[in-house]
Each structure stands twice: as C-alpha cells, then as structure tokens.
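Tip: read the tokens left to right.
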C-alpha cells in the first residue's frame, strides 16, 4: 500500500472515530433527555395518581379525618399524668386507650319528658266471670305490658280575633253622638294571615331541617292549606327584616366587644343580583364568638364577594384574637391578633397521605399529622382534667410550644416533590409560621377553627336542599334566620319555640339594649320558656 493510500485510510479512520464520538455524544444527550422526560412523566403520573386517590377518597371514602392512634412508632402523650404535668412517654411504655362505647339511652330515658296516655284493656263484659264457678271476677292488679311511641300529625286552625264593641246606653239616649269603645286586639304580625307560629315553623323547617320552600309547600297541602312558596319567602324576608334584624344588630355589637372571635366563609349562589350573572359566586360568611366561656354568639352574613373588606367591615371595632383558616383576605382586618387553625394544617397533611399508608410513620405526611395530633391530644387532656384558662396557658407553653418548635424544624428539612399534595401541605404550614404560636398567649384561644366549620356545615347541608337564593334580600334574610336558629341550637333551645317567642315579642329599633338582652338565647327566662324538654 502506498503512502497516499495509508494517509487516506488514516484520515478516514480518524473521521470515522470523530463521527462515532459525535454520535455517542448525541445519543448520550438524547438518553439524558429521555431519562429526564421519563423522570418528569413519572412525577406527573405520581401526582395524577395522588390526585385520583384523593378524589376517590372525597367521592367514595369516609369523610372522617380520624387518624389511627395505634400507628407503629407513635409517641402517645399521657399515662396518668399529674395535674400540671402531662408527660411524653417512650413508645414502649405507652398504653393505648381502649374505645369505651357510650351506652345507648333507654326508651324511658328518651321519653321522660313526653306526656303519657294510659290505655287500659279490660276483659269483655261477657268474659268477666270465673270459668270454673261462674262468679264475677274482681280486679286484683294491673300490669304495663308494652309502650309505644305515637306520632300526632301537625294540625292547622284559624284563629279569629274578635273586637268587642261597647256602647254607653245613657249617652246613646242623651248625647248627640253615641260613645262607642272597641276592645283592642293584638297587632297582626305582617298585616296578613301570617302568625308567629306559622312563620316560625317555616323558618325552623328550612334553616334547621334543611327543607326547601317548594317541599314545605307540599307539606302545607297535606295539612289542608295551600300556602305558596312565594308567600313563605315573603314572610321570612319580612319577619327577619322587621323583627329579627334589630336583635341581629344587637348581637353584632356584642360580638365586636368580645376578645375572642372566629370566622369562616362558603360560596352561595344568588340568582337575581343587579349587575351580576345568575351563575356568579357570592358568599355566606360566619362570624362567631370563641371558646371564652361566655354565651355563644353566632352570626351569618351575606356578601356578594369573598373580599377581605367584608371581614374588615363586619369586625370593625373588634381588637381581640381572631381564629380563621388560611384565607389571606382576613389580613385586611386591622388591630387583631390572628390565630392559626391547626385543623386546616392537619387536613393538608392528611390529604397527602398515600392510599393505604395511614399507619406508616415513615411517610412524611403521616409524621405531619402526628405533630398536629399531639397538640390536639394535649388540648383534650386539658379539658378532660378541667383546667382553668391560666392552667391551659401554662400547659400549652410547657408542652405544646416544644411540639410546634420541633414541627417547624421538621418542616424546614422537608424536600417535597413540587406540585404534590405533600408540597402543598408543607408550604401551607410554613406560610403560617408567624401565627402558629399566637394561641399560646391566652388559654381562651382555640387551637382550631372547628367551631366555625361545624356551624358553617349547617348552612352547607341546607344549601344542598335549596341550592340557591333567589334575591340578595332572600340571602340576607337567610343569614339572619340561620343566625338565630344556630344560636338557639348552641344554647340547647327548641329552635321553633325560640323563633316563635321572638316573633311574639315583636322586637323593634325603639327598644333599649336591656330589653333586647332579655330576648337573647342565654337569658334565663328564655331558656325556661324554650328549653328542649318543655
């Protein structure tokens, strides 16, 4: 082979090696790109599966967020602690409290406040003779064989108020104009055939039992009277606006004078609102008193939007501790101490637990739930022991503050997958680090916003039945009606009796606060008149 041929071959080999290197580089880059895509798609599949599991749990699973206390490796909090010293014990020494089932109430216990009708069943006259000798039988004893619960359907009646006209017979003969006096009759509720009892029943059925007006319309037909849903709606709007609103405003004044309050909000649809489409989302807000040992005040408030200005305006004059969820709109409320709801933090971590891993303490989301559960366990312990507010504050500082500090350190160490439920939980908690310990300042502060959520659930349950409000006036009337129905319930009153009592009293804006105070659900006379066992 000549020199030229060798040189050409060497050049070709070098070119081939260079091409192979370039091809390898290209393939390596393609492989890395493919691996990155696979990793990205794997994460997406994981997130989608996580979302799918979450939606399945929401649609078909249990709504309860209870977490198994028997989780492997869990640190349980108490083992007969001293009054001020609930000790955290090693896992090996921890007794698990067994579930004590509450005994079922007997029929006699449940029916103790009901009237009793005694039905004695004698022998037929022809059988009241001795079958042996024919001597007439004598009663020697009686035995209650069984008891039945009988339902007496509601009945309607028309009440006619008759004014008696009186005339002076002497003046009739001697005076130019006869002297006639009419006996006064009680004023009507609305200038119509509506009575306190009928309106109170409509309010009770809709706002406590969640029965929409169109279904109540059918009920009234069964009672023997055609009462339209439009008439019922007008009654509710008129009575809440004329009579109950003044009491609502009084409760509002009392609430902003308190030192502890809670708030929540949920969507509601209002069809006929000027300048807005029927499908636009409006909001029902809830403002209530906290766990300060004072009578519960619970107020619903309708607003077209979720703007934080609503909370700011409603709570104007309030300067205490406000327990709310993570909604940033509440930041517009000035001069308050905002508290963090650990139930919401816990819920984020609970929703991030993979399917079937609720008992696996190695799962970070389970660990997040455990931190929250420790706090709630301490709170239960303090209440079970009957701690004073001062003792609760001291107990929190000694035992709960270290848990929160450890929780914050743990949060900072987490490296969750971006976009995952666990990442959302970690970010949600970290964004509230500045207000996590506010509740430690006073034993009357709450650890969670559960009291508000429980009362908002009453509204949400009712909304599933009646779906929407027709007008803003109807939404405002619903807010007032729900307020007094839920306050009556919170004070263990018969809701129907309490609403009827308020309408009978005809409250008005000319009344002094002392008069309005006597109509509050915590007033002793009101409790006696409207208590559940009447």
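Filled-in amino acids:
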């Amino acid at each position: 082979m000549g020199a030229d041929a060798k040189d050409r071959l060497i050049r070709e080999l070098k070119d081939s090696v260079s091409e192979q290197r370039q091809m390898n580089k290209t393939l390596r880059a393609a492989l890395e790109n493919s691996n990155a895509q696979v990793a990205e798609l794997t994460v997406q599949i994981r997130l989608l599966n996580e979302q799918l599991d979450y939606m399945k749990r929401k649609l078909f699973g249990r709504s309860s967020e209870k977490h198994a206390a028997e989780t492997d490796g869990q640190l349980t909090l108490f083992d007969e602690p001293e009054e001020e010293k609930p000790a955290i014990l090693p896992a090996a020494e921890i007794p698990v409290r067994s579930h004590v089932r509450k005994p079922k109430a007997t029929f006699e216990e449940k029916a103790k406040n009901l009237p009793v009708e005694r039905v004695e069943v004698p022998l037929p006259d022809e059988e009241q003779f001795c079958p042996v000798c024919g001597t007439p039988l004598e009663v020697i004893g009686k035995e209650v064989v069984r008891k039945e619960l009988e339902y007496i359907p509601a009945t309607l009646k028309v009440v006619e108020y008759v004014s008696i006209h009186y005339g002076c017979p002497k003046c009739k003969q001697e005076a130019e104009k006869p002297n006639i006096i009419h006996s006064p009759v009680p004023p009507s509720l609305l200038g119509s055939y509506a009575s306190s009892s009928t309106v109170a029943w409509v309010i009770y059925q809709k706002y406590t039992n969640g029965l929409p007006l169109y279904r109540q319309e059918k009920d009234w037909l069964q009672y023997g009277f055609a009462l339209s849903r439009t008439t019922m709606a007008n009654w509710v709007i008129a009575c809440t606006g004329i009579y109950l609103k003044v009491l609502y405003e009084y409760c509002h004044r009392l609430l902003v004078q308190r030192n502890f309050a809670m708030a929540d909000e949920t969507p509601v649809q209002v069809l006929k609102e000027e300048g807005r489409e029927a499908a636009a989302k409006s909001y029902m807000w809830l403002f209530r008193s906290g766990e300060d040992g004072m009578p519960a005040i619970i107020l619903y408030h309708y607003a077209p939007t979720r703007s934080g200005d609503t909370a700011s305006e409603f709570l104007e004059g309030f300067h205490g501790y406000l327990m709310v969820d993570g909604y940033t709109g509440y930041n517009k409320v000035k001069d308050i101490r905002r508290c963090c709801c650990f139930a919401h933090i816990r819920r984020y971590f609970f929703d991030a637990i993979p399917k079937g891993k609720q008992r696996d303490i190695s799962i970070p989301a389970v660990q997040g739930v455990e931190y929250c559960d420790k706090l709630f366990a301490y709170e239960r312990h303090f209440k079970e022991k009957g701690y004073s507010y001062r003792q609760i504050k001291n107990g929190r500082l000694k035992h709960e503050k270290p848990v929160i500090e450890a929780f914050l350190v743990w949060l900072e160490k987490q490296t969750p997958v971006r976009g995952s439920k666990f990442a959302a939980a970690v970010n949600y908690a970290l964004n509230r680090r500045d207000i996590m310990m506010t509740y430690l300042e006073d034993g009357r502060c709450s650890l969670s916003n559960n009291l508000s959520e429980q009362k908002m659930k009453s509204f949400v349950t009712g909304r599933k039945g009646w779906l929407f409000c027709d007008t803003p006036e109807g939404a405002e009337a619903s807010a007032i009606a729900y307020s007094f129905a839920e306050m009556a319930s919170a004070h263990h009153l018969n809701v129907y009796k309490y609403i009827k009592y308020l309408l009978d009293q005809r409250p008005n804006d000319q009344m002094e606060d002392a008069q309005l105070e006597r109509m509050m659900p915590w007033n002793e006379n009101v409790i006696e008149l409207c208590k559940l066992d009447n």
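The first strand starts at residue 165 and ends at 167. Residues 360 and 389 are 36 Å apart (CA to CA).
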